[in-house]
Amino acid sequence: MSDSHAATETQLRNITAQTGRTVGHFAVEVAARGALPHGQIIALLKAEHGLSHGNANLIAHRVREVLAGGPVPADDLLEAQYTGARAALRPIHDRLVAFASGLGPDVSVVVQKTGVSLRRRRQFGVVQAPSAARVQLGLNLDATPADPRVVATSGMCSHRIDLPTLDSVDGDVEGWVRLAYERAG
User: For the range 71-74, what are the long-range contacts, defined as Cβ-Cβ under 8 Å and sequence gap of 24 or more?
Assistant: First the structure.
């Protein structure tokens, strides 16, 4: 289980301990009030159960998953990221994930709604398709490589590399992924 999943499970256990209610209990309560938008579910949980905004947001997401029939399978999330005009980018994603997965048995690949997180002890990369023109590889590196393709950023990753073609996933890109992997260990 990745660190983020373990932290989320701990957060859910703490909410249950604090309130005496599970996600299932909250789902029944919300369902009884009809279809509520996310923000109204958060407001309800904060007002009636004294939850912090972060805890209410997590419960609201989980309640909406339960009411929609459960979480979306990872394969469906990934397929949705690479449909239509983005379908041609899927081989770039596949090559990046295959390379990262081959770096060690401790690599976990976590498919999310808008991208794929590459994790070791902590996240070392993110693969996303923000447009039909490129795959964007986010990496956590110590320093910016002397290559104009690598751009320093802020946020979940320290650097970004735009990869418009399969050939752009070259030895340099693989080397940067390896560096990020090693740094995350």
Answer: 72/113, 74/111
Cα distance between residue 60 and residue 41, in whole Å: 6
pTM score of the predicted model = 0.69
For the stretch 48-89, pLDDT in tens is 999 999 999 999 999 998 888 887 678 878 888 998 999 999
Contacts of 158 (CB under 8 A, 6+ apart): 139, 140, 141, 152
Query: What is the residue extent of each domain of the chain?
Result: 3-67, 75-183
pLDDT for 142-163, tens place per residue?
999 999 999 999 988 999 999 9
Burial of 80 (0-12, 13-18, 19+ CB in 10 A): middle
Torsion sign across C-alpha atoms 144, 178, 1, 64: positive
Largest Cα separation within the chain, whole Å, is: 58
For residue 39, how far is the Cα from the chain centroid?
Answer: 21
